[in-house]
């Protein structure tokens, strides 16, 4: 029933959401400037609105799809049911503006939209305190989420009151939100070291891995967009890719949670984490080495021949990188293995001799 209601609200909001996007109400910039940038790039406002509507709709459907699959496969598990509801409402009410646009156009819908958004926010934050077994660890952590419930209730149901610190004191609100999140992460660390079974630890690794990558991707792509909003967001062909990349990064959250709860191939996560750390570090180091080597080679070539740019210098840089690839990879692999061994033993409280996959 909640799923049908949530998806129904989103579908009903699509016409109003499209008009809102066409009016460029989400840009935060002067509409005339945005229209001029789009026109200069050979794109229409309608195309821009249709694209954003399409990727946000796809994102909401994928979050909802994972939630439905979890409900279908594990509806007898209270924690799985709780997570399914959280993913459903968070994906619709926090990653899209459609329901809020609908509520603004039809005020009678506002109480329902606010109620579902409230539950989505509460469920998503509570996930950090309850996953994976549905119990608060330590037990006194039960009181912390109650404060978050009060915080969100003031925001959604009493927006004009002094208790809504998002409006009355934004700085205090930022500190409070970060504190609640850090306490949830601390609870997960304590649970992992002292309470979780081996399977629960693997589940936690999946979720942390997915959320970590999602956070890095969202921040990275967001910084690229914010670096030049008038050009990157509305004038460059890369804008469309960046917008989709942010939502794509966020999709790692429901996918990792879905895999963790359904317990599908949980044993593969150690290898995935290991390879991700190795090759991401290797990519950064090789890219930096190539940039430095190519600059030095080009300078040397210019000093000896007087030619500013030469493919010979670039080719020599590629050879240097190729020769150093395997030794560098082996060193990074060894460092990651040692880090994995130390971290596994520390998280296990020193009572386990985990070995990172070679």
Structure summary:
The chain has 358 residues and is an all-alpha fold. It has helices spanning 2-22, 31-40, 45-74, 78-93, 98-105, 110-130, 143-157, 165-168, 170-194, 198-227, 229-233, 238-250, 252-262, 269-305, 311-347. The protein has two domains: 2-200, no CATH class; 276-347, no CATH class.
Notes on the structure:
The structure is a single chain. The chain is mainly α. The chain folds into 2 domains: 2-200, no CATH class; 276-347, no CATH class. The chain has 15 helices and no strands. It has helices at 2-22, 31-40, 45-74, 78-93, 98-105, 110-130, 143-157, 165-168, 170-194, 198-227, 229-233, 238-250, 252-262, 269-305, 311-347. α14 (269-305) packs antiparallel against α15 (311-347). It is globular and about 75 Å long. Mean pLDDT is 79; it is low at 350-358.
Q: What brief labels describe this structure?
A:
358 residues, mainly alpha, 2 domains, 15 helices, 0% strand, disordered C terminus
Mean pLDDT: 79
pLDDT < 50 stretches? 350-358
**Beta-strand percentage?**
under 5%
- Helical amount: over 70%
- Quick one: biggest sheet? none
* Integer-rounded radius of gyration: 24 Å
Give the H and E element order.
HHHHHHHHHHHHHHH
Number of domains: 2
Specify the overall morphology.
Answer: globular
Describe the secondary-structure layout.
Blueprint: H1 2-22, H2 31-40, H3 45-74, H4 78-93, H5 98-105, H6 110-130, H7 143-157, H8 165-168, H9 170-194, H10 198-227, H11 229-233, H12 238-250, H13 252-262, H14 269-305, H15 311-347
Helix pairs in contact: 1-3, 1-4, 1-5, 3-4, 3-12, 3-13, 4-6, 5-6, 6-7, 6-9, 10-12, 10-13, 14-15
């Amino acid at each position: 029933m909640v799923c049908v209601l949530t998806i129904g609200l989103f579908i009903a909001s699509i016409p109003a959401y499209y008009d809102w996007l066409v009016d460029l109400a989400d840009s935060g910039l002067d509409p005339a400037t945005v229209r001029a940038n789009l026109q200069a790039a050979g794109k229409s406002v309608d195309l821009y609105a249709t694209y954003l509507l399409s990727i946000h709709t796809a994102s909401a459907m994928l979050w909802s799809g994972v939630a439905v699959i979890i409900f279908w496969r594990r509806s007898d598990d209270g924690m799985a049911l709780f997570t399914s509801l959280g993913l459903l409402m968070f994906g619709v009410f926090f990653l899209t503006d459609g329901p809020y646009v609908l509520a603004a156009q039809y005020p009678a819908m506002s109480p329902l939209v606010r109620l579902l958004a409230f539950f989505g926010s509460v469920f998503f934050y509570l996930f950090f305190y309850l996953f994976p077994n549905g119990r608060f660890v330590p037990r006194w952590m039960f009181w912390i989420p109650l404060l978050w419930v009060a915080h969100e209730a003031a925001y959604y149901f009493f927006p004009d009151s002094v208790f809504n610190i998002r409006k009355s004191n934004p700085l205090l609100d930022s500190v409070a939100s970060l504190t609640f999140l850090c306490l949830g992460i601390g609870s997960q660390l304590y649970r992992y070291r002292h309470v979780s079974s081996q399977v629960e630890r693997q589940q936690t690794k999946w979720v942390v891995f997915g959320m970590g990558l999602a956070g890095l991707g969202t921040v990275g792509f967001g910084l690229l967009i914010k670096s030049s909003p008038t050009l990157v967001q509305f004038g460059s062909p890369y804008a469309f890719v960046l917008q989709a990349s942010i939502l794509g990064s966020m999709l790692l959250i429901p996918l990792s949670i879905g895999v963790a709860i359904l317990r599908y191939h949980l044993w593969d996560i150690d290898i995935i984490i290991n390879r991700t750390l190795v090759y991401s570090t290797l990519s950064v180091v090789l890219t930096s080495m190539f940039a430095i080597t190519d600059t030095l080679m080009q300078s040397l070539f210019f000093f000896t021949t007087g030619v500013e740019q030469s493919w010979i210098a670039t080719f020599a840089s590629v050879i240097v990188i190729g020769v150093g690839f395997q030794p560098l990879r082996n060193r990074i692999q060894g460092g990651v293995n040692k880090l994995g061994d130390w971290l596994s033993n520390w998280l296990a409280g020193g009572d386990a001799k985990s070995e990172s996959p070679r």
